[in-house]
Amino acid sequence: MGNLGVVKSGLIQCSNPINDESQPVEKIQKAMLEKHLPLIEEAAKKGVQILCLQEIFNGPYFCPSQDKRWYAAAEPIPGPTTKLMQELAKKHQMVIVVPIYEEDIRGVYYNTAVVIDADGSVLGKYRKQHIPQTSGFWEKYYFKPGNLGYPVFKTRYATIGVYICYDRHFPEGARLLGLNGAEIVYNPSATVAGLSQYLWKLEQPAHAVANGYYVGAINRVGTEAPWNIGRFYGSSYFVNPRGKILVEASEDKDELVVADLDLSLIDEVRQTWQFYRDRRPETYEGLVAL
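Given the sequence above, the corresponding C-alpha cells read:
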C-alpha cells in the first residue's frame, strides 16, 4: 500500500508571450519562464503539494520546424532551470515536475521531465519514449528516444510517474507506470485542435481506469508564430481511477488547475476491478516479438 491521504495537485497551462521567431532563443525562453513564476506562486498560495508544468514549459513548441537554432534551447540537468525550480520547490515545500529540453552530452538531446521533491532535491527524470515524426511534429530532428524506462518517483506526498505528450497514445508504458507503483501519472503535452483533440478525453481516462491511478493531463494554449500549426486548446484536467474528470481548464486561458486527489480511492477501485491480479503477461509475448 502507498499513501492513503488526500493530495492537492496542480497543473499549469500557459501560452507563449513572444510569438516572434526573429527574437533570440534565450529571450523567448526567459519570457516564458517569467510568465510561469506568478502561476507557480499562485499554486503555492492555494496549497498545491504536487505541481506539473507543460511540455517544454519554458519555450514555444518549436517542432513544426526543423531548425538547428532551437538546439540552443537545450540545457543540462542539473542546469539553471532545474536549480531555480529546486529553490522554488524547497521554498514552498512543493513537488514540481519540470518538463524541459535536455542536453545530455554535446549534440544529444532529450524531451525530459525533471522530478523535484518538496525539499528541493532532484529525485530523477523521465525521458519521452515515443517520438513522433509527422507533419507539424518533426520531433525526431530534436529528440533522441528516451532510455530511462518508465520510472516512478516516491515524493513526499505520493508516488508519481510521467508520460510526455505522444506517449499517451501507447498503453504499454501507461501499464508499466502502474506496475511500477505510480499513484498519479502526469502527462505534459503540446497538442492542437483538429488533430488529436477527439482523443484528449478518451485515452487518458482509459489509462486511469485500466491501471487504477490518477492522471493529470496538461496542454498549452494559444497559437505560436511563425509555425501556426493550429490552436493549442488547453483543456488540462485531472481524471480519477474511475475515469471521472474532476476538474478541467479552459481552452484559451493561462490557468492553474487544482484538484484534491484522494489516494484511498486507488485501493477501492483496484479491489473492485482486479485488473492487476487477472493480467496474463505470459500470454503477451507477441507484444514485444514484432
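DSSP finds seven helices and 16 strands in the chain. Try to locate this feature in the C-alpha cell string yourself.
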